[in-house]
């Protein structure tokens, strides 16, 4: 056997994605380069690691066992690197964070200075649906999660970061006359929702129910970006977080429509399990957030107060 650490990393990424194309994207490599690494790795085994049925790649049972072993090897290699840096008085280790999808407009700004200062810290940030964010926290798979609605079923600690404001928005293609009753938006036009489990969807449904608003037609989109593009195209109206539509409001492709009871205001919170023993890296990040959050908000999100 003469496999390399690079081959192990490539193979592990292929097994995670069940796709050479997706693995290449995540590794910032070309698809042919990933295919070559897979072939060179496969050549060292007499048993197939993968198979292609139709156009879909599948990992064999043997391949799954090799992937598990590869993950253990790579974790040990990372541990050696982290220990070396620790002896050099550098903070080193892995920081794992799961965030609700709209949180991608928030969390990077609370990470950038910390990551720049601590070169030995590896960041793993999973951007997903709120339901999966809470599940990953509950299974103790992450150090922290970023949410706008705190789950009641878990014993948690939290640091409140900043406001999350949700407004009724529509495309500027749909010219809404100021004298027309806004209620007609809900009566006569499609409403665009996020998928079930989304905190944004829950807030929107709660508002509509509380105001006893009629709804004409409902459409569901499974990402904030897809929802934003659909609204800009004039497909319908939605209640959306301001944090994700700053540029579209500024360039005039989206408009905020004033409506009584809006904006809905919640807060972004960094949460973690009370029972969790935080790693030195997680402890350092928490100290950084507590000390610098106000500075970051003032420097980065000053525009937020205009609305």
Strand and helix map with partners:
Blueprint: H1 5-17, H2 20-27, H3 31-42, E1 50-53, E2 56-59, H4 61-87, E3 92-100, H5 112-117, E4 120-128, H6 130-138, E5 144-147, E6 156-171, H7 183-188, E7 190-194, H8 199-210, E8 217-221, H9 224-232, E9 238-241, H10 246-251, E10 254-256, E11 264-273, H11 280-300
Parallel strand pairs: 3-4, 3-5, 7-8
Antiparallel strand pairs: 1-2, 5-11, 6-9, 6-10, 6-11
Helix pairs in contact: 1-2, 1-3, 1-4, 2-3
User: How many structural domains are formed by the residues?
Assistant: 3
CATH fold-level assignment of the largest domain: D-Maltodextrin-Binding Protein, domain 2
Q: Please tell me what the overall shape is.
A: globular
Characterize the main sheet: 7 strands, mixed
CA radius of gyration is: 23 Å
Query: Regions with pLDDT < 50 over 5+ consecutive residues?
Result: none
Report the helical percentage. 40-55%
Average pLDDT rating: 89
H/I helix tally? 11
CATH class category label of the largest domain? Alpha Beta
The count of DSSP E runs of length 2 or more, i.e. the number of strands, is 11
CATH architecture of the largest domain: 3-Layer(aba) Sandwich
């Amino acid at each position: 056997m003469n496999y390399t650490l690079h081959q192990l990393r490539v193979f592990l990424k292929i097994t995670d994605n069940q796709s050479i194309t997706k693995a290449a994207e995540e590794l910032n490599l070309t698809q042919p380069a990933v295919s070559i690494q897979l072939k060179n790795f496969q050549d060292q085994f007499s048993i197939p690691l993968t198979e292609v049925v139709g156009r879909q790649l599948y990992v064999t049972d043997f391949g799954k066992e090799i992937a598990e072993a590869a993950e253990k090897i790579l974790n040990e290699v990372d541990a050696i690197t982290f220990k070396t840096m620790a002896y050099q008085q550098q903070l080193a280790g892995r920081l794992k964070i799961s965030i609700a999808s709209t949180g991608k407009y928030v969390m990077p700004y609370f990470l950038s200075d910390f990551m720049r200062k601590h070169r030995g810290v590896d960041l793993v940030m999973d951007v997903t649906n709120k339901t999966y964010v809470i599940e990953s926290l509950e299974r103790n798979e992450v150090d922290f999660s970023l949410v706008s609605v705190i789950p009641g079923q878990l014993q948690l600690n939290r640091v409140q970061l900043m406001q999350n404001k949700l407004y009724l928005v529509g495309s500027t293609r749909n010219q809404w006359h100021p004298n027309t009753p806004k209620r007609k938006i809900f009566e006569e036009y499609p409403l665009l929702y996020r998928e079930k489990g989304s905190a944004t969807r829950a807030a929107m449904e709660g508002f509509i129910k509380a105001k006893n608003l009629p709804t004409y037609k409902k459409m569901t989109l499974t990402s904030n970006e897809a929802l934003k593009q659909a609204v800009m195209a004039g497909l319908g109206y939605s209640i959306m977080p301001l944090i994700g539509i700053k540029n579209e409001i500024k360039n005039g492709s989206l408009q905020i429509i004033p409506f009584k009871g809006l904006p809905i205001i919640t807060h972004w919170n960094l949460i973690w399990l009370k029972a969790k023993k935080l790693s030195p890296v997680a402890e350092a990040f928490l100290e950084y957030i507590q000390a610098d959050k106000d500075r970051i908000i003032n420097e980065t999100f000053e525009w937020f107060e205009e609305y």
